[in-house]
C-alpha cells in the first residue's frame, strides 16, 4: 500500500473497487470501476451468455432459475477476474412498473409525501405490502413565481418483492453484497446520456425486447416495452436462410444491415420495432408539444452494423450509438473495442457509476 492511499484512508476517503451487475434476459454483464484521484477507472468487465446454461444458443433470451443464474454469475466473476464485492444490481424493466401521474401539489413536503404514497396505490395493481415503492417529483419546466402551483408530475416506480428476492438470492449466492437494486432504465440513462435537458429517446434493443424511454431534464418522461428484440432478428435470419440459430447469430453480427441476402429479414424485424417506436415518439411529441431532438441506440441490438443510418433514414433526426465506456478511463489501445461493445454494457456501467457516487 502506498503512503498516499494510507492518507486517503486516514481521511475516510476509501477508494474501493465497485461492481455493476446487469442480469439481462440473454446474458449477464459485469463492470468493475474504481475511483483514482477523482477519475473513474475501468478495472475489468465481462459478459457471459445464459443460453448455453439452459440448452440454447448464445444471444437467445432465457428463463433460468435463480440457481442457474447464480452459477453463471460465479463463472463470469471468475473469468473476468472480478475482485470487487460491493455492487449495484439491475432490475429488468419488464418486472417493474413506471407511471407518470399528475397529483395535487402540497407546500409541506411531509404532506406531499403522504399524498403521493396514498395516490400511488390507485396506479398499482397489487397490494402495497407486496411491492417496493419509490417516486420522483418531476422538476418544473419554468417555475413562475406568480401562478399558484396546483399540480405536480410524479413518476411512480414499483417493483414486486418476489423479483427483489430472486435477485437477492442470486447476489448472495455469488458472494456479492448489493447496496441497491435499480430499474435498468435509470442505469442506462446515467451511462448513455447523463444530465440531458432536451428530450432524447433511448432505444435499448435487448435480446427479448426493445425498451424505449424518453428522457427530459434527466427524468424519464415516458417508457414503453416492445416485445421484439435482437433474438427475433436471429430467428428471422435462421428461418429465411434455413440456417441453424448459431449460424444466423454469427451472420447477424458480421453483416448487420450492411448487406447480403439476410438484409430483408433484418429490415423486416427492425421496421416492426421502429413502427412501434414511432408511435411512442409521436405520442410523446403530441402530449408534450415538443420534439424529440435525438435517438440513442443501446443494448446489444444497438450494435447492429449500419443500424444508426437505417434509423436516421426512418426518423429523420439525429441518431447515435451509446458509448458508456467513454465515461471511464481505460488504456488507449482498448478504446475501439470498448466503443464497439459499449452498448451491451450500458446498464452495468450505469450501475457501477452510481455505486461509485455512493462511496
Ligand atoms: N454486434 C452485434 N450485432 C447485432 N446484434 C448483436 C451484436 N452483439 C450482440 N447482439 C445481440 O444483442 C442481444 C443481446 O443484447 P443485450 O445484452 O443488450 O440483451 P439482454 O440485456 O440480455 O436482454 P434484455 O435487455 O432484453 O433483457 C443478443 O440477441 C445479441 O445477438
Ligand atoms: Mg438488457
Q: Can you describe this structure?
A:
The protein has helices at residues 3-10, 66-79, 109-120, 161-173, 184-192, 230-241, 245-255, 263-288, 307-315, 335-341, 346-358; strands at 17-23, 27-36, 39-49, 86-91, 96-104, 131-137, 151-160, 177-183, 200-205, 210-216, 219-226, 294-298, 318-321. Helix 6 (230-241) runs antiparallel to helix 8 (263-288). The chain is of the alpha/beta class and 359 residues long. It has three domains: 1-92 and 159-193 and 324-359, Nucleotidyltransferase, domain 5, CATH 3.30.420; 96-158, Dna Ligase, domain 1; 195-321, Nucleotidyltransferase, domain 5 (2-Layer Sandwich), CATH 3.30.420.40. Residues 1-13 have low confidence and may be disordered. The strands form three sheets. A five-stranded mixed sheet has the order 3-2-1-4-8. A five-stranded mixed sheet has the order 11-10-9-12-13, sandwiched between helices. The protein contains eleven helices and 13 strands. The site of adenosine-5'-triphosphate (ATP) has 24 residues, from helix 6 and helix 7. Adenosine-5'-triphosphate is lined by residues 24-27, 59, 92, 206-209, 229-231, 234, 249, 252-253, 256, 299-301, 303-304, 344.
Please supply descriptive tags for the structure shown above.
alpha/beta, 3 domains, binds adenosine-5'-triphosphate, 359 residues, 37% helix, 13 strands, Nucleotidyltransferase, domain 5, 5-stranded mixed β-sheet, Dna Ligase, domain 1
Amino acid at each position: 500500500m502506498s503512503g498516499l492511499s494510507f492518507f486517503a484512508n486516514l481521511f475516510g476517503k476509501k477508494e474501493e473497487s465497485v461492481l455493476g451487475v446487469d442480469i439481462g434476459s440473454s446474458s449477464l454483464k459485469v463492470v468493475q470501476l474504481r475511483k483514482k484521484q477523482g477519475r473513474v477507472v475501468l478495472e475489468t468487465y465481462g459478459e457471459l451468455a445464459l443460453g448455453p446454461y439452459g440448452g440454447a444458443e448464445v444471444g437467445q433470451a432465457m428463463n433460468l432459475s435463480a440457481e442457474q443464474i447464480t452459477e453463471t454469475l460465479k463463472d463470469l466473476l471468475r473469468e473476468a477476474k472480478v475482485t470487487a464485492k460491493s455492487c449495484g444490481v439491475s432490475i429488468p424493466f419488464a418486472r417493474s412498473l413506471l407511471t407518470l401521474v399528475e397529483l395535487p401539489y402540497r407546500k409541506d413536503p411531509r404532506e406531499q409525501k403522504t399524498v403521493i404514497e396514498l395516490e400511488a396505490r390507485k396506479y398499482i395493481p397489487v397490494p402495497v405490502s407486496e411491492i417496493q415503492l419509490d417516486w420522483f417529483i418531476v422538476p418544473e419546466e419554468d417555475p413562475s413565481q406568480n401562478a399558484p402551483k396546483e399540480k405536480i408530475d410524479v413518476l411512480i416506480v414499483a417493483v414486486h418483492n418476489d423479483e427483489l428476492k430472486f435477485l437477492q438470492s442470486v447476489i448472495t449466492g455469488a458472494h456479492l453484497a448489493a447496496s441497491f437494486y435499480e430499474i435498468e432504465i435509470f442505469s442506462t440513462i446515467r451511462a448513455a446520456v447523463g444530465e440531458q435537458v432536451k428530450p432524447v429517446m433511448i432505444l435499448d434493443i435487448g435480446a427479448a425486447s426493445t425498451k424505449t424511454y424518453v428522457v427530459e431534464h434527466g427524468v424519464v418522461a415516458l417508457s414503453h416495452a416492445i416485445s421484439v428484440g435482437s433474438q427475433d432478428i436471429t430467428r428471422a435470419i435462421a428461418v429465411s436462410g434455413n440456417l441453424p440459430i448459431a449460424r444466423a447469430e454469427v451472420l447477424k453480427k458480421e453483416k448487420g444491415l450492411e448487406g447480403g441476402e439476410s438484409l430483408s429479414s433484418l429490415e423486416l424485424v427492425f421496421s416492426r420495432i421502429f413502427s412501434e417506436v414511432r408511435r411512442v415518439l409521436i405520442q410523446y411529441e403530441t402530449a408534450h408539444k415538443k420534439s424529440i431532438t435525438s435517438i440513442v441506440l443501446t443494448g446489444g441490438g444497438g450494435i447492429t452494423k449500419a443500424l444508426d443510418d437505417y434509423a436516421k433514414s426512418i426518423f429523420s433526426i439525429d441518431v447515435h450509438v451509446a458509448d458508456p465506456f467513454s465515461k471511464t478511463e481505460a488504456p488507449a489501445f482498448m478504446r475501439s473495442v470498448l466503443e464497439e461493445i459499449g452498448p451491451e454494457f450500458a446498464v452495468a456501467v450505469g450501475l457501477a457509476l452510481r455505486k461509485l457516487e455512493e462511496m
